[in-house]
């Protein structure tokens, strides 16, 4: 089967999009599953936390766009993190119609606990690749992401 035309195959062995789908699911189970088991954090909550740590005062729309995630998943993540005291909402000083989000001190503390584990998982997942291969993969994925955004816009 590995010799089929990739455009007509849906096997991860032959089709790069199928392979990416499988890899994404495996990462979700290994990487984010561990964060959920240890910290009760969903993938949307972790991605929200990452975004707010790197870009304080982001909006929900910023997070949705950065991660290409479902609006409801991010809304639920923000609501739960706000209930847990990890995120606060404030009126956007640049656009009073929207709200900006930031991590609270408790949210920053939780981030600091999670980050070493998340980084170790990341290093473990990419460990089969050399630095050169990893850099090349990043470039190829960036090209695919940019191109697919143009298709969907």
Explain what this protein looks like in three dimensions.
The structure is a single chain. This protein has 153 residues and is mostly helical. It has a two-stranded antiparallel ribbon with strand order 1-2. The model has no long low-confidence stretch (mean pLDDT 88).
The largest pleated sheet is described as: 2 strands, antiparallel
CATH class: Mainly Alpha
Q: How is the CATH topology named?
A: Arc Repressor Mutant, subunit A
Percentage of residues in strands: 5-15%
**Structural Rg:** 18 Å
User: What is the CA-CA span between the terminal residues?
Assistant: 35 Å
Number of domains: 1
Mean pLDDT reading:
88
CATH level-4 homologous superfamily: Winged helix-like DNA-binding domain superfamily/Winged helix DNA-binding domain
Under the CATH scheme, which architecture would be assigned? Answer: Orthogonal Bundle
* Lateral strand order in the biggest sheet: 1-2
Low-confidence stretches: none
What tags apply to this protein structure?
single chain; 153 residues; mainly alpha; Arc Repressor Mutant, subunit A; two-stranded antiparallel sheet; 6 helices; 66% helix
